[in-house]
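Good morning N.,

You mentioned wanting to compare the apo and holo forms, so I went ahead and generated the holo version with flavin mononucleotide. This is what I fed in:
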Amino acid sequence: MNDTITQLFDRKSVRVFEDRIITDEEKTLILEAAIQAPTAGNLHLYSILDITDPAMKNKLADTCDHQPFIAKAPMVLIFLADARRLYDGFNLLEREVIAPGVGQLLLCISDALIAAQNAVVAAQSLGIGSCYIGDILENVEEHRQLLDLPEYTLPIGMVVFGYPVQQQRDRKKPTRYRREFIVHENTYRRMDEHRLKEMMDTQARDAGLPTQDFKQVLDTIYTRKFASDFALEMNRSSLEWMKSFLPK
Ligand SMILES: Cc1cc2nc3c(=O)[nH]c(=O)nc-3n(C[C@H](O)[C@H](O)[C@H](O)COP(=O)(O)O)c2cc1C
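and this is what came out, ligand included:
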């Protein structure tokens, strides 16, 4: 394995940070690396909010599903899907302009997340850990106001960065599903009960854990991640974020 691939395999989320700043030089490198990411049509359909205000970090730690480590992160970046910038430009033209639609929304989201992952990988190469925070999609009204977000923007991801404490460096990375369950040759194959069980059982075995009743595992995932209060709130808010892009 070369260094790049080793780094990709080693990367894991970091949620406890050393009391050590990220220098301006490091931050600049991470942001510049993000901007080097591929972007549809080279249009840069995203913006990055660099949250430096401690009061805003505190607020986000609360509004993003009460995760206090957000406030303690030396660097917090919010990746916005952003069709606003170009739409404002188009409106300067002396012609009728069609508002951004769902196609543009999906491209904006793609651009924003690809840039985010470039930032994550660049940070990792400097020894700086990171954690995505999906809960930035929640509480649309509060987040819209806090971040001053206009129509045709959507905060698709927040990433917090900092130097990992030793315990986080030592923490075992969660085991992934095996490749054979993720990669399909040519066409999509739905999984039957047997294959779903195999996927969950092999994950447990690869992690060195005892296998559990796979339906129990699925039930826990469903209850915690799909039917929980935060998930329902995320669905409500996401629809609201998307509204400006939907047909009127
Ligand atoms: C889109 C997305 C949203 C996430 N949101 C959160 C979050 O709100 N809080 C958190 O602690 N981790 C969050 N994570 C981190 C995942 O829990 C983590 O990536 C996963 O458990 C795998 O662990 P690893 O990153 O250490 O390999 C998020 C990851 C992604 C990709």
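Residues 102-125 form the longest helix (24 residues).

Happy to go through it together on a call whenever suits you.

Best,
F.
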